[in-house]
Amino acid sequence: MTRIAIVDYGMGNFHSVARALQAAAPDHDIRIAREAGEIRAADRVVFPGQGAMPDCMRTLDTSGLREAVLQAAREKPLLGVCVGEQMLFEASDEGDTPGLGLFAGRVRRFQGPAFDHATGDGARLKVPHMGWNAVTQTRAHPLWEGIAQDTPFYFVHSYYAEPADPALTAGTSLHGLPFCCAIADGNIFAVQFHPEKSAAPGLRMYRNFTRWQP
């Protein structure tokens, strides 16, 4: 039986992720991991996060799980979700916070004319970006299997990752500007949206993750 660890460092929607994974893959051993040994013992790791990036990084360090997450990212399939994706990069504009540095790039805040000025109909794009939005798959990947191009997923965020290497991008969405919302490299796949809040397509992504052999 495959063991999947959901990293619980105190800043994530861990129970919702666990319920979604259990629904997507009922024959797997799904565990919320609060100890480094549980992460090291797992076959696959989900790294969620929500809230402010400075709080997430600080809580990850105080939890004692940072090195276990880094080791998992080197050795086994890892799925980053929301701020869990952002934390994989070098730094964030949110509090000028250093990330884990697994990927070159920076996390940026939504800003620009579309957010600062009303359009002709009096509307102005809001931050945070919240709700359903279409995701364009920019390259093939096993985690996209069975998910149609431009399928909507559920987002809640004010910041987005900007990879230094465009080849890292596996999916984009549009909120005032096109932005990277999925990355893929080797044994790592990570998304800005919440699969656990994205109905059938989100469950399909989690099911794909449990079967993925990078």
TrEMBL record:
Entry GO MF terms: glutaminase activity; imidazoleglycerol-phosphate synthase activity; lyase activity
One Pfam family per UniProt: GATase
Catalytic reactions on record: L-glutamine + H2O = L-glutamate + NH4(+); 5-[(5-phospho-1-deoxy-D-ribulos-1-ylimino)methylamino]-1-(5-phospho-beta-D-ribosyl)imidazole-4-carboxamide + L-glutamine = D-erythro-1-(imidazol-4-yl)glycerol 3-phosphate + 5-amino-1-(5-phospho-beta-D-ribosyl)imidazole-4-carboxamide + L-glutamate + H(+)
Major location category of this protein: cytoplasm
Keyword tags: Amino-acid biosynthesis, Cytoplasm, Glutamine amidotransferase, Histidine biosynthesis, Hydrolase, Lyase
GO CC annotations on file: cytoplasm
GO annotation, biological process: L-histidine biosynthetic process
UniProt keyword Ligase present: no
Active site per the UniProt annotation: C82 (nucleophile), H194, E196
Residues of the Glutamine amidotransferase domain: 6-209
Pathway participation: Amino-acid biosynthesis; L-histidine biosynthesis; L-histidine from 5-phospho-alpha-D-ribose 1-diphosphate: step 5/9
UniProt cross-references to Gene3D superfamilies, sorted A to Z: 3.40.50.880
E.C. designation(s): 4.3.2.10, 3.5.1.2
Function in brief: IGPS catalyzes the conversion of PRFAR and glutamine to IGP, AICAR and glutamate. The HisH subunit catalyzes the hydrolysis of glutamine to glutamate and ammonia as part of the synthesis of IGP and AICAR. The resulting ammonia molecule is channeled to the active site of HisF.
Subunit structure: Heterodimer of HisH and HisF.
Name recorded for this polypeptide: Imidazole glycerol phosphate synthase subunit HisH
Source species of the chain: Castellaniella ginsengisoli
